[in-house]
Design a protein that fits this description.
It is a single chain. The chain is mainly alpha-helical. It has a two-stranded antiparallel ribbon with strand order 1-2. Strand 1 and strand 2 form a beta hairpin. Helix 2 crosses helix 7 and helix 3 crosses helix 7. The chain has a single domain, classed as Hypothetical protein af1432 (Orthogonal Bundle), CATH 1.10.3210.
Length: 212
């Protein structure tokens, strides 16, 4: 391997500190519980979710949108929920507009704080993701919307819809998911293949949970 050039003691010291910063934020994110549940009833955390998203978004990008930078998709996946280290995860099912606004304000404050704490490359990635301009950032945000149903499917009767929201009929679930699908088609019109996959995931989840 070629010897690295331009290394000095200040760089080494800074990189040493950066590793501890990233370790600290990872521990914080591992403590943030999300709405989806695992089969044992335990809530998913942000670290496992981000890993799942990085795998899933990269796989889908490579297959359906090869023009996207798959490496950037993976990196955006890893930073997409970092604001929750300070803002926490807000469950958005049937959320009121007042609480949605509170969530956005809390996350905006968290991002400002993170910009002063994160190493430069990671901070830049988070800032780029939050702008939602690059197609890779928008793609990651959309795939992120699909994954709760994957986890809730795997959870079986431990899923959050049954345990936390008392949704116990396919009709109620289908109505809720139809509203979400309509919203996502407005938000992400450019990713037609992902909309089709989302509809398939919803159908599989709903049929499995309600045994139809």
């Amino acid at each position: 391997m070629k010897q690295s050039v331009g290394i000095n003691s200040d760089d080494i010291h800074k990189s040493h500190d950066d590793l501890f910063k990233l370790g600290k934020i990872t521990i914080k994110l591992a403590d943030i519980k999300r709405a989806p549940r695992y089969p044992n009833g335990e809530n998913e955390d942000d670290v496992r979710h981000s890993y799942h998203l990085a795998l899933s978004a990269s796989e889908l990008a490579t297959k359906y949108y090869p023009e996207l930078d798959c490496g950037l998709v993976s990196q955006f996946s890893l930073v997409h929920d970092m604001a929750e280290a300070y803002a926490g995860d807000t469950w958005t099912l049937n959320i009121s507009e007042e609480n949605r606004l509170k969530k956005e304000i809390a996350e905006s404050k968290a991002i400002i704080k993170l910009m002063h704490e994160l190493p430069s490359h990671t901070a830049e990635l988070l800032a780029r993701y939050e702008k939602q301009i690059e197609p890779e950032a928008r793609f990651v945000r959309f795939v992120d919307k699909i994954l709760p149903e994957v986890i809730n499917y795997l959870a079986g009767n431990a899923n959050t819809y049954r345990l936390d929201h008392s949704i116990d009929s396919k009709e109620t679930m289908d109505k809720l998911q139809a509203q979400l699908s309509k919203r996502y088609k407005t938000m992400f019109p450019e990713f037609d293949a992902i909309h089709l996959i989302h509809e398939k995931v919803i159908d599989t989840f709903s049929r499995h949970i309600f045994k139809q």
